[in-house]
Amino acid sequence: MSAPINVIGGGAWGTALANAAASAGHPVSLWLRDPQAAAALQIERVNPRYLPGVPLHPAIHATASAGDLAGARATLLVVPAQTVRGVLEKLRRPLASAGPVILCAKGIERGSDSFMSAVAEQVLPPGTPVAVLSGPSFAADVARGLPTAVTLAATDPGLAASLCALLSGPTFRLYHTDDVRGVEIGGAGKNVLAIACGIVAGRGLGESARAALIARAFAELMRFARAFGGRPETLMGLSGLGDLVLTASSPQSRNFAFGQRLGTGASPDEASGGKLAEGAFTAAALTGLAAARGVEMPVAASVAAIVAGSAGVEDVIAGLLARPLRGETD
Question: Which fold has domain 5-178?
């Protein structure tokens, strides 16, 4: 039997990527931090909390043992952005012999304002290959084998191409690039901007307003990417525009749903509904980084203010509409 693919994280996206990797012909070790949850998943072969009704592929072995991670061909780290550092520190030793680490979280670390690749490079043993996976993908679609295309980035183009070949399956298609920062910016930024689109929907402002907001939000994302070394063509691809269009248009997106509830008058705590919306944690870091480089991001800044409780939805909408008129490409 060939060496397995590791998937760290038993949430919806981790379970979906485990199914995708198994469908591509690999044995998969799906690591969960809770031994009882791992044992139940191994026996029941379904993840009732995160992906009810979706069978676990027979080639997946659910485990809570860190020792089971050693010797893998590659490791997909599929945990929330704010927990990436802690999980990598916990599993640093077995990951030293678990192949390239592919980061699947879309966010910026609070406190350090670090992108996920920078966090991984700080924690993992020197020389550990790191890649980033991002793009327009709902976990339920991927888990069920519906056609999906995403982007995988690594600074070594050969590594990126080989990982794409390793993980691509019958319905899960990966495109590769060496623009790690551009892919990370697209993934983290679109979560914040999807919240804004959800607010528009929840407030009943209409499809014209939502379309305008998507366009202006994307312009912000492009400005931010240029300031931080991301390539425009990357942002125009799957991990930027593609992901923004998906998550800014559907209540399946946790960020859009969070914003939608904010738009109906819920407080940030009420709007979360006990579910993770990465953009709520990333908003302040994104706007802080933008301000430090002199990048205007009024939509993202508005989301950060609403999430922080320092501004109300009505005031933010009025403020955006009262901004000085300008050229569209300015």
Answer: Rossmann fold (3.40.50)
Whether residue 295 is predicted with pLDDT greater than 90 in this model: the reply is yes
Sign of the torsion formed by the C-alpha atoms of 165, 55, 147 and 215: negative
The catalytic position among 90, 106, 190, 275 is 190
Query: How many helices (H) does the chain have, and how many strands (E)?
Result: 16, 12
Fold classified for 184-321:
N-(1-d-carboxylethyl)-l-norvaline Dehydrogenase; domain 2 (1.10.1040)
Q: In sequence order, which residues have a C-beta less than 8 Å from that of residue 222 and are 6 or more positions away?
A: 232, 235
Residue by residue, DSSP assigns 213-262 as: HHHHHHHHHHHHHHHTT--HHHHTSIIIIIHHHHHTT-TTSHHHHHHHHH
268: which residues sit within 8 A by CB, 6+ positions away? 262, 280, 306, 307, 308, 309
Structure tokens at 127: 């020389």
Kindly report the number of other CB atoms within 10 A of residue 29's CB atom.
25
155 closest CA partner among 127, 178, 177: 178
Q: What pLDDT, on a 0 to 100 scale, did the predictor assign at position 199? A: 95
The CA distance from 219 to 217, in Å, is 5
Nearest to 199 by CA among 118, 268, 138, 123: 268
Q: What is the pLDDT of residues 108-137, one digit of tens each?
A: 999 999 999 999 999 999 999 999 999 999
pTM of the model: 0.95
Pairing of strands 101-103, 130-134: parallel
Catalytic, 90? Answer no
Rounded CA-CA distance 206/201 in Å is 7
